[in-house]
Every structure is written in structure tokens, then in C-alpha cells.
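Run log, item B.
One chain of 155 residues. Sequence copied directly from the ordering sheet:
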Amino acid sequence: MPTTDQNAKPTYFPRLAAERLDIALCRASTTVARAGEMHASAQGLGVGQHLVLKMLAAVGACSQQTLSEELRIDRSVMVSVCDDLEKSGYVRRERNPHDRRSYAVTVTDAGLDRLRAAEAAIPAHLDATFAALTPAERVQLTALLGKLLVPKPAE
């Protein structure tokens, strides 16, 4: 029966990643997402909560549906994110004056304060997470990912 050496340097995955860009990107994404969640946890504000506060501060009040679509967070998850933010006093939900069937989510002053505190810790987190990349490589990665995230026109 073959044994595996727990201290051996991985040799297969780097080869697989070189052959399958999709696998490499998926695994890198998972690694970065875990680092983001750990950082957010330490800050006391989940990644989704941070993104919602950031978007509301940038664009103003909007519906949960718009938040969900723009931030690419599942609608059912968005409900609990907004519930948690509302319980903490960081957002308030009010009937949308333009569509009484939906709610407009608005960031509160406490939410803006919380966002500023969370944002202050982001540069150090990004530096640690992407330490393997030079500043130029980070700029290049950002540009390449931006290309992948642009919605494709309907065929």
C-alpha cells in the first residue's frame, strides 16, 4: 500500500493548475475568500455585510434585489445579511416610495462609522493576502479579472 509523506512538497497540483486555468482560479478564489472571511470575522463584520454597507455608502438607498444583483449575493442570503445589519443598527429598511412591494435599504450613520472602521483595515489585509504578487502583478490581476467579470452579451 503506498504511503504519503505529509511533509512532501506538493508536485501534482501545480501541474494541474498549469493545465487547467479554471481549476487554478477556482482554488485561488477559495483561498482568497477564506482569507477574506477570516479577516472580516476578526473585524466583526461579514464580507457580505461589508459589501452591502460599501455599496449603500457609494450609491445610496436601493432595494435588496438590486444589492443582490450588483454584489452577486444570492437573494436568500441577502435577506439574512440585511436582517443582521438592521439588527445592528447599520441599515434601515423602509418601503420603497417608487415600488411599495419592495424595501429601500439605507445605510445609517452608525453603519457609515462601522464601514469606515472596517475599510481602514483592508489595505493591510490585501497586502497580506496578495503578498506573493508584486504591485504590478496585482494591477495586472485586477485588470484580467475585470475582463472575466464583464457580462457577456446575449447570443
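Observations after the first pass:
- The radius of gyration is 20 Å.
- The helical segments are 12-19, 21-43, 47-59, 64-71, 75-87, 109-120, 122-129, 135-149.
Flagged for discussion on Thursday.
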